[in-house]
Amino acid sequence: MRKLIGLVFFILIISYAIFPLNNITLKVNDVPYDDGGKLVVKWKISLDKEVENIRISQYNGETWTVKKNTDNLNDSMKDNSVNYKQRYKYKIEVFDSEGNLIAEKSSRSIKPGVAFYNMGKTAVLIGLIIISGLIMFFINAARRGQKLKIRRIPALDSIEEAVGRATEMGKAVLFVPGILDVNNPQTIAGVMVLSEVAFKTAKYGTDLNVPVSKPVILSTASDTVKESYLKAGRPDSFNDDMVNYVTNDQFGYVSHIDGYMVREKPAAVFMLGAFYAESLILAETGHSIGAIQVAGTAMPSQIPFFITTCDYVLIGEELYAASAYLSRKPDVLGALKGQDYSKLIIMIILVVGTILTILFPDLDLSQWLTNIG
Amino acid sequence: MNFWEKINNLDRRIVYLIIGLTVLIPLLFNIILEVEPTKPVQDIYDKIDSLEKDDVVLVSFDYAASSLPELQPMGEALIQHLFEKDIKVVAMALWPVGVQLSDNIFNVKSEEYNKKYGIDYVHLGYKTGGMVVIDSMGSGIEDAFPTDKNGNKLNELKLMRNVNKLDDFALAISLSAGDPGLRHFVMVAHDRYGVPVAGGCTAVSAPQFFAYYSSGQMLGLMGGLRGAAEYESIIEKLGTGSAGMAAQNYAHIMIIIFIIVGNISMVVLKRKKK
Amino acid sequence: MFLRRQVPFFITVVVALIMIIAYFTPHPTISPVRNKLQDWFMIIAAFTMIVGILSLIKVNIKKIRTASAGSDKIYSLVTLSSLFIMIFFGLLPGAGGINNSVFKFMFNHVMVPLQATMFSLLAFYIASASFRAFRAKSTMATLLLITAFIVMLGRVPFGRFISGPHLSNITEWIMNVVNMAGQRAILIGAALGVMATSVKIVLGIERSHLGGE
Known about the structure:
The complex is a heterotrimer.
Chain A: H1 2-18, E1 23-30, E2 39-46, E3 53-59, E4 64-70, E5 74-79, E6 89-95, E7 101-106, H2 122-143, H3 154-169, E8 173-178, H4 185-204, E9 208-212, H5 215-231, E10 243-245, H6 250-264, E11 268-274, H7 278-288, E12 292-297, H8 303-309, E13 312-315, H9 317-327, H10 330-359, H11 365-371
Helix pairs in contact in A: 2-10, 3-4, 4-5, 4-9, 6-7, 9-10
Chain B: H1 3-8, H2 12-28, H3 39-50, E1 56-62, H4 68-84, E2 88-93, H5 96-112, E3 121-126, H6 131-139, H7 141-144, E4 171-176, H8 182-190, E5 197-201, H9 206-214, E6 220-223, H10 224-234, H11 240-273
Parallel strand pairs in B: 1-2, 1-4, 2-3, 4-5, 5-6
Chain C: H1 2-24, H2 31-65, H3 72-91, H4 101-133, H5 139-154, H6 157-163, H7 166-203
Helix pairs in contact in C: 1-2, 2-3, 5-6, 5-7
């Protein structure tokens, strides 16, 4: 009999341990690889009473602050109001429909950790080192005298033809460096080509008009054109009005250029830089006046518009390659070669990754790569 | 010049006139066409539907009046859905005109749903700097926006008391016509700070943003007027997006007719030359 | 020359290194520096708007003064008067700033329709560009033409009307597979170009943003 009672008690105790009737689990963890400004609070509640509201509060050593009210029994929250210099504690309070406190639990005190290096960015760091390394390697190789070939880019070869046409017709050349500011690489690439176009217009004595949409580009483009005219031996032909600021507004800028095109009918139109919706408006107007049009942008959505309306188009990277192609400077050619090798590595990774994913789907390669950063 | 030669060299002004009438007539007669929602748009709806009342959503109005016909209906439908679900909204703009355009939405919707400024929604206003603004919000929203657009300090607004950094938002939505915009929210808010990002964009940019949706960097995308119309049909409140779909529908058909006629004239003239 | 070339180059290198390190290091010693640089960027960006306004005023006053400007004089007068009227009503004390009724009226009834009109030109230009460009002159051009038809019909209700869900499904496949591959290729290429340009700027090889060679 005693043995039977003992066995019943033992079974009850074990059952309670395995299947608790009332249980609150509260865990507070530090978010890894951050600046010590985040903690994650997780809770799991299992009560035999009906739960109306769950309140999570934070204690920072001085006061308790309510952080969240919810009715999710099994959830988590991220607390961004913490500081790596202090310790924090959390408390969870469970209320029924009448507002009575039916359960509560406090966590241990925790101090958010600070990391020196974010391991989650490892893949980015590796990519940065490889790509920058390749670019710098080939720049050095070019400086040491290695000959680097670059394929023909018809759009850039057509600059001479376009400027020549404008000279023959006695009309101006219009250069549009895009709609974004000088901090955008496409604008910088466009300004590089502008220096070449300005050199040719200086040489042939053709009028050049460069309307810009941002004041900072005004000074950059103006200096670029001035220097090209100086290099061509025609500093007296340069005038300040060649590069003119229009407006920051996208469509105000487009209206100005369209109006200029329709009134002055430039014979050659260059559109090189970053463009948005205005690309088709500009290109169609240029086509309607019969101008020879050379365009280039790395905006994927605008490339098709340029291709259908312009005579020559620099697609994507060809715009960035323009400075290397035109100047033929070893440094710049080296950087271009480094870029191409980086692309080759990416292509190899893509092909190998695709084959491995097809052959071994259980490896879950994409998730593994995502997890390393 | 015979008929097909005339067609081949058709004056563009005739094309413009026909397209103009094709777009104008359905709008004048207020023809509304409902569209079937697609998964990218449904995903945005499902995410907002899964949010709790305490969650705060960031909506960035990154467009100018030129993209109003495509993006304003998206904004209206989104704010309507968020207000219906009693989800708190923090608005901002990376384009200056976005502030006024979003005000036009909030003035109407806040009255319709009886939402109080400072409690149910806050407008941070416009800040220049693009991606830098979003990154700055990552370390602290007050770093980028010390006050809201009306000059109120953020800690004086009840809604902002538990919203200190970018990753306090349950969702960031950017209605974007270009740069700065959705691309920067994906790069910074999602990739750097882990905030779920959804967006709306003009139809011309939609193909490139689908790449981000497909890789999981964006949880949903509304592309162009169609995206707006789809969202309106999901929330069952047809508006300007659905009204515009009729005009778009007929315009597409007209362009196809132009292309077919152009090709027929090209073939006929080619055969004639032979 | 030292102020125009060497100093900006030095600033570029230092700031670039700080921002790169800050990207990989979450430690609180570096984040205040990064935050300060970001604040400075936002302040400078705001001031470029002022530079823009001053440039606009300068350029248009010059046009008004120049006798040979012709009809450009009237456009410049309109530009300047619009600018000053909007600024006046926007800054009018006690009137609610940009919330005042006159400013809002001008915004909603002048600026919005003007901007929307310019964008709407695209509808016409797309029609004329399509009419001219979509010709089946070769196999690839024919393929492009057929794809354009499918996508144009698949994206509007008429497509569902004539084919049920099929055109829509084919359109989705074209957008998610074929188009996606092309977009990703261009995005990756452009991103590499941006990276190479950035490396060149940091190394001082690319100096066109400083004005010429």
